[in-house]
Write a structure and sequence with these properties.
- The chain is an alpha+beta fold.
- It has one domain: Gcn5-related N-acetyltransferase (GNAT) (Aminopeptidase, 3-Layer(aba) Sandwich), CATH 3.40.630.30.
- About 35% of the residues lie in helices and about 30% in strands.
- It has helices at about 25-35, 35-40, 50-65, 115-130, 145-155, 185-204; strands spanning about 10, 15-20, 70-75, 80-95, 100-105, 135-140, 155-165, 175-180.
- It has an 8-stranded mixed β-sheet, sandwiched between helices.
- Helix 4 runs antiparallel to helix 6.
- It is globular, with a radius of gyration of 16 Å.
Length: about 200
Amino acid sequence: MPARTPLPRTLTGRHVRLEPLSTEHLGELFEAGGGDEEVWRWQGGPAPQTEAELGGKLATLLDAAERGAYVPFAVVHRASSRAIGWTTYMDINVADEQLEIGWTWYGRAYWRTAVNTESKLLLLTHAFEDLSMGRVQLKTDHLNHRSQAAIARIGARREGVLRRHRRRPDGTWRDSVYFSILADEWPAAKENLTTRLRELDHAG
């Protein structure tokens, strides 16, 4: 089956629901992560200190989504029914059967919980099994060791480093570490993610 363009839709798990991101999520998103420098450290700019500042970032993302550059999701914590972060499909290339999962953040209270694992499970399942993608990539700053470890834990393979890839807001240069999962690797990665989610459930 040929790959298909991702469209806004809702993906539901036990812990999180990924739903189309909108301005209606702004207040809850600011409560979850506004003003937290550690949450925004790797997001390309200082932490938004007001709801209006976060609204500017949200508007930029939604404008890019209107042009087809992103498919953004609000990450809704099902136990509280509140938006606690966002994540996106980006760098979408249907002809080459590939996309990227990126521009992801969650409120710090949800780090090291089932939130990221289940979010990635939902996004990857949709990409490979519904959209027939052949490759899903993820990338992160070479200094962001926490993110690199999290990406490796989901079963993605480290491909290499794109040097001097992007200028950071402080003027320094970022190297980007690239990871990917291919369609034929997905069954093993899915089993790994499902097992990890089960372990997190039991630990919780």
